[in-house]
Q: What sequence folds into this?
């Protein structure tokens, strides 16, 4: 996988309840001219190798550790993929200090309880809101061009959300969390950057 | 500690973004048309690499004009 300066490994929960924040992350990163990458579509017994290669191809990573609850399906379990992938990134970044990682959470001080090994790392608290995600992504990154404003990102978000049913229909998908829908959403969000960021 | 990272790169063009994401050009053009964005439109501050192609286009246009 070719390494690109602009790629951000997006480590988030893939569930329908997270759809709004999923679109918010895609929008906010695209507004900053970054390219979101995710493990969507990576399956099979070589999955771990491919996740590692995806992490290595990215310069930054965002880890949303807000999904700490048990899921609804029996047997009810918490999701360990996100903290596990964060662990992979932490090890990778120790050997490659250029890789920068950020932890995002919904609830203040919960991370100290759920993952106390990260004590001393302040997470970005987005309060579980779309605006919160945009605000905190802008707190983590400073744009190479003009820093986008949250109202501009909100306009991008609304148009991306309006377009998403057509993207789903064209892809013949029922879920937003598929590889093709994800990449299509990212392309559309990148297009919307030129339309809204910096526009009067 | 909370760190703020200053991004230091020239933003990719839409075409390059689609390539990075593995989206074929035709599909990228189609999905961007849904939001009224042209894949080949120049983004302010985006990397430019099509000077040669643009020059060729202009010169062919000029040739056509001279024929008329």
A:
């Amino acid at each position: 996988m070719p390494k690109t300066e602009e790629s951000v490994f997006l480590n988030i929960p893939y569930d329908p309840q997270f759809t709004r924040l999923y679109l918010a992350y895609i929008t906010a990163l695209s507004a900053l001219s970054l390219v979101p990458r995710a493990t969507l579509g990576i399956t099979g017994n070589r999955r771990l190798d491919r996740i590692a290669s995806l992490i290595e191809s990215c310069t930054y990573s965002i880890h949303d550790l807000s999904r700490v609850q048990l899921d609804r399906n029996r047997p009810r379990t918490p999701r360990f993929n996100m903290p596990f992938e964060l662990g992979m990134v932490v090890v990778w970044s120790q050997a490659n200090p250029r890789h920068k990682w950020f932890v995002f959470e919904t609830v203040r001080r919960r991370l100290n309880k759920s993952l106390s090994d990260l004590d001393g790392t302040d997470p970005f608290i987005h309060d579980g809101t779309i605006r919160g995600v945009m605000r905190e992504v802008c707190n983590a990154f400073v744009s190479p061009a003009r820093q986008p404003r949250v109202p501009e990102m909100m306009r991008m978000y609304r148009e991306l959300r309006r377009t998403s049913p057509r993207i789903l229909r064209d892809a013949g998908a029922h879920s937003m969390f598929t590889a093709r829908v994800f990449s299509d959403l990212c392309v559309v969000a990148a297009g919307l950057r030129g339309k809204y960021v910096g526009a009067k | 500690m909370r760190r703020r990272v200053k991004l230091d790169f020239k933003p990719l063009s839409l075409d390059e973004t689609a390539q990075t994401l593995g989206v074929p050009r035709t599909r990228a053009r189609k999905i961007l048309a849904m939001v009224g964005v042209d894949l080949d439109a120049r983004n302010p501050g985006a990397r430019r690499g099509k000077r040669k192609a643009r020059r060729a286009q202009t010169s062919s246009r000029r040739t056509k004009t001279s024929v008329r």
Summary: The interface with chain B takes residues 2, 4-7, 32-35, 37, 60, 100, 102, 120-122, 124, 139-145, 159, 163, 166-167, 170, 183-184, 186-188, 190-195, 198 of chain A (CB under 8 Å). The mean pLDDT of chain A is 93. The first helix of chain A runs from residue 19 to 31.
